[in-house]
Amino acid sequence: MIEYLDGIYRWFSKNRRPVAKLLQEGVTSEYFEKVTGILELKLPIELKELYMWRNGTANQKGFTFGDIEFMPGFFFLPIEEAVDNYNSFKKDKKWNESWFPFMANGGGDFFVVNCKDDNMARESSIIGFMLNEESHDVEYLNLKSMINTIYECYERGIYFLDTDGYVEVNLVKEAIVANVINPGLERWESEIQ
Predict the structure, then answer these.
(1) What residue spans define the domains of the chain?
(2) CB 67 within 8 Å of CB 17
(3) Per residue in 26-68, pLDDT tens?
(4) How far apart are CA 113 and CA 43, in angstroms?
(5) Which one is the CATH code of 2-142: 3.40.1580.10, 2.40.170.20, 3.30.70.100, 3.30.420.40?
(6) How far from 151 is each of 3, 61, 117, 121, 148, CA to CA, in Å?
(7) What's the start-to-end Cα distance of the chain, in Å?
C-alpha cells in the first residue's frame, strides 16, 4: 500500500498540489495506539499503516478545499480529527458504531473502515457514508484496494486537473478501474452497465 501512497504523493508534488505540503508527518505506532486506544473499536492494521505514512492533511488558513483534497471530493483526516468525528457520529441513527472515518468532504460525508469485517485484523472493507443517503455501500474491498484505485486514477489521468487547477474525474473510467481492482462490488458494477 505504501508504494501506491508514495505514487499519489509524487503526483501531488509533480502537479504542485498544495496537499503535498499539507500532508502531516506520519505518527508512531505508539501514538496511534494512544489516540485510538480510547475507542471501543479494534482498528485494522492497514489503517495504522496509513497513519504511520502520513497523519492526514493539516487544515491551514488560506487554503481552499480543492487545495487539501486527497481524492476528488475528499480530504484525509488527521487521526485526532478522525477520532473526534467518530465520537460525534457514533450515536447518530444513520451511523454504525463499527465504522471509523478517515476521509471526509467537510459536509458530513465520509469514507469509513468497517471494523466488523471477519478479516478485520489485517484489513477491512471501506464504506461510503453519505449523510443524505439511506443506504451506505461498500465501495472498496479494503484500504489497500482503495489506495490502489486512487493511485491508478491519478496515474492514468482519470483524476486530472482542469483549466482552473481543480481536480476533476472521469466517472466512467473511474468505475472501470475501480471495478477491476474491487471486483464484485455493486457500487462499481452498476456504474459501468
Answers:
(1) 2-142
(2) yes
(3) 999 999 999 999 888 889 999 999 999 999 999 777 787 788 8
(4) 8
(5) 3.40.1580.10
(6) 9, 27, 24, 24, 5
(7) 29
Name the grid cell of 27. Answer: 505518527
Q: Which three cell numbers stand for residue 187?
A: 457500487
Q: pTM higher than 0.90 for the full model? A: yes
Q: Mind giving me the DSSP string for 120-166?
A: TTT---EEEE-TT-S---EEESSHHHHHHHHHHHHHTTSEEE-TTS-
Judged by DSSP in three states, 189 sits in: helix
Whether the CB-CB separation of 18 and 68 falls below 8 Å is answered with yes
- b/e 118-154 (16+ beta carbons within 10 angstroms → b): eebeebbbbbbbbeeeeebebbbbbbbbbbbbbbbbb
